[in-house]
Amino acid sequence: MTLLRPLFISFLIITFSSCKEEGTWIQFKYDEARAYYYSYYQQGTHGRSEVLVNGKLNPTILNPEGAELDSEQIRLLGHALNGNKNEGPAMPAECYIPHHGIVFYNKSEIVAHISICFMCDRIESVPANHLNQTKILEPIFEELGIPISPEEF
After folding, report:
1. What digits encode the pLDDT tens for the residues 35-84?
2. What does the H/E/C string look like for 48-95?
3. pTM of structure
4. 150 within 8 A of 99, measured Cβ to Cβ
5. Are 129 and 82 in contact (CB under 8 A)?
6. Measuring CA to CA, which residue among 56, 46, 47 is closest to residue 101?
7. Which of 101, 73, 75, 87 lies closest to 131, judged by CA?
8. pLDDT above 70 for 86
């Protein structure tokens, strides 16, 4: 009996230490993620208001180098986009004129992107996401020094 106890404890330690954090939207390889803000009113984007236009960064981006997200910001983002941070039902979007975006890169190639409209609380992404409130993402942009309101641009 005393011999089984250490084996059982070892089994529990191995089992729980190998658990991965589940429920993240990020299921792709990337080596960096950068946040952008933009005003689609400039330089004529022909009604395109996402962070990417024809596979390239929106030409109205106001911080062309982007602001790199750290590992904690990426972790929060991944869990939020999977719907783990939702606080009630989604409300219908009024406008969807996004001014914020996050782009994931792997070896300088775009592998995923997110366009966010904080004004109407809507987010679109590739791959698709399950977030129904964008407010959870505001602190990420604030920490990066990116204004939330287009009036602040």
Report:
1. 999 986 654 444 567 999 889 999 999 999 999 999 999 999 998 888 87
2. CCCCEECCEECCCECCCCCEECCHHHHHHHHHHHCCCCCCCCCCCCCC
3. 0.79
4. yes
5. yes
6. 56
7. 87
8. no
